[in-house]
Design goal:
The chain is an alpha+beta fold and 210 residues long. It is built from three helices and seven strands.
Length: 210
């Protein structure tokens, strides 16, 4: 019996089995066919024959389309990375600007009226001055037999208390500054880490495509 696809007198059609170069699916094509479209992935394939063997390869037009598509994808990814970097750099600039404004509010003035950063060492030094001032001045009072404190002694006690109070305020300001600086440095390091991750990730993505 004749095949329904053939007319009487037409030679029998010879089919060859090939694999799609793109998805690996099995294809059956006529022996004389030079181009075919894979029914599984819709890829246009060219059929090459060498030394009695046949195999498929991407058609040149398909190659160009895929290359253009990949180039476009690279451009989109580059733009996305650049946009992400610009956003992070903007956040970093804003963070530093806000910190500079806040930093001035956390600083204290020295004797010349200039802003300086308060430190714990300054607070401890100021607190140590109180007994050094108190002992020499209080010695004559302690040597006396009277337990009544003259007016000068009360002024001295008030002065020493004021020095201690100033030292405590300076210490609290120093601790507050240290905590604020640590928080700023942590936020800054997080942004720098994200920028570093973007720089490291991009070459790996391009290498994987190749």
């Amino acid at each position: 019996p004749l095949s329904p696809s053939r007319t009487p007198g037409e030679p029998e059609m010879k089919l060859i089995a090939l694999n799609c170069n793109h998805c690996g699916a099995t294809l059956e094509v006529r022996d004389e066919t030079n181009f075919v479209t894979c029914k599984h992935c819709d890829t246009q394939l060219a059929i090459h024959r060498e030394d009695g063997a046949a195999y498929t390869a991407l058609a040149e037009a398909t190659k160009r389309v895929e290359q253009q598509t990949e180039a476009l994808a690279d451009q989109v990814e580059d733009l996305s990375d650049q946009n992400a970097r610009l956003i992070l750099q903007g956040e970093l600039t804003q963070l530093d600007r806000e910190w500079e404004t806040r930093r001035q509010g956390l600083m204290t003035k020295d004797k010349r009226g200039q802003l300086v950063v308060a430190t714990r060492g300054q607070a401890f030094t100021l607190a140590a001055l109180a007994p050094l001032i108190l002992l020499p001045l209080a010695a004559p009072l302690l040597a006396g037999s009277s337990f009544e404190m003259p007016g000068f002694a009360w002024i001295l006690v008030a002065f020493v208390a004021a020095v201690f109070y100033a030292a405590m305020k300076l210490h609290a300001k120093a601790v507050h500054y240290e905590k604020a600086l640590a928080a700023h440095d942590a936020d800054r390091e997080a942004i720098l880490s994200k920028l570093g991750a973007l720089r490291d990730a991009r070459p790996k993505k391009k290498k994987r495509r190749r």
